[in-house]
Specification:
five-stranded antiparallel sheet
């Protein structure tokens, strides 16, 4: 195993963030999606959705040429030859996604959260949009999905998933067997999920609206803690993932108060064991760490044996003095 030479993909006066990679095994193409925004003199202010627009952009690694497509675009990616020439000259192969939200009267909506996954020659990405562009009002953030076709290099219209005046956030896409599930956080406390594969295949009109006769079945991560054991879960930090046997898991960070009155933050998990999707339930939350320390930035991977491993930051924190020592991380 060798690591290829690092290559810079963008070189402009804009701020790129939250990169997500996708790979299509049929074509061998790679896509790197990211958010692009302007940066002003006041960095914090300029990155706020209340004062600045952000768009979804991607770069294409074309397996047929063995290089990043910097000096050409496919027909479905541009409106005209003039547009292609402009994009090549000024943007060097960056592809700007068209994500008009007619419900909000937005041609280029401000993106808050973003995630993506690829399967069956398709790239699926999801994002949340703040309806009034005001970061202080979170109850009007709605969830959308768009689909990219690797074969035709075409992006379809956005599909609106939520219309509920509830704070929808942190969407995550998880490939589970032959299905892809879209998880989301509601009101910073509840985790909901839907089968996005079935929805895209059967439930969407050509204009991106969901068919009136299609029933979007929404699942919920819910369990009752045993008496005298764990406190109610704090899902604000949740992550969803799947193991080699296609079992669905979520993890979250849970504040813990110890018998001596001290506090720390441990990792918990719950599983939906794959015994057929229907009539299953989420397991009670299991405490994965018992270190007496604080954890964050949790990630998971599967080793060569198929075992699921967890990786996280672990550090000590002096709550009285409001900080932690880098030496303790």
């Amino acid at each position: 195993l060798t690591i290829a030479e690092i290559e810079r993909l963008t070189d402009d006066e804009f701020y790129d963030s939250d990169p997500k990679g996708m790979y299509d095994k049929n074509s061998g193409d790679y896509l790197v999606y990211y958010l692009k925004a302007e940066v002003g003199n006041d960095f914090i202010t300029s990155m706020s959705p209340t004062t600045n627009e952000s768009v979804i952009v991607y770069m294409l690694y074309d397996a047929s040429t063995g290089k990043w497509a910097r000096d050409y675009y496919y027909d479905n990616e541009v409106a005209s030859q003039e547009a292609e020439e402009y994009l090549v000259e000024y943007w060097g192969g960056q592809r700007f996604l068209s994500s008009p939200i007619e419900d909000f009267g937005m041609n280029d909506p401000i993106i808050i959260d973003f995630d993506s996954v690829s399967y069956n020659n398709l790239g699926v990405y999801t994002f949340t949009v703040d309806e009034d562009n005001n970061i202080d009002t979170i109850e009007d953030r709605e969830l959308f999905v768009q689909v990219y076709d690797f074969e035709d290099h075409a992006t379809y219209v956005p599909i609106r998933i939520t219309h509920d005046n509830i704070a929808d956030a942190r969407p995550q896409l998880v490939r589970n067997g032959e299905h892809t599930y879209l998880f989301r956080l509601q009101n910073n406390k509840d985790v909901r999920y839907i089968n996005i594969s079935e929805l895209v295949r059967e439930g969407v009109n050509d204009d991106g609206t969901i068919k009136e006769d299609y029933d979007v079945s929404v699942g919920a991560v819910f369990f009752t803690p045993s008496n005298g054991t764990d406190i109610n879960p704090t899902f604000g930090s949740y992550n969803a993932f799947v193991d080699k046997d296609d079992n669905l898991f979520i993890t979250w960070l849970q504040p813990v108060v110890n018998e001596d009155g001290s506090s720390n933050q441990e990792i918990y998990a719950s599983a939906l064991v794959s015994k057929g999707y229907e009539n299953t339930s989420w397991s009670e939350g299991v405490r994965l760490t018992n270190s007496g320390a604080f954890h964050d930035e949790v990630a998971f991977l599967t080793d060569s044996n198929g075992d699921l491993l967890t990786v996280s930051n672990q550090y000590s924190m002096d709550l009285e003095n409001g900080g932690y020592s880098v030496d303790d991380v």
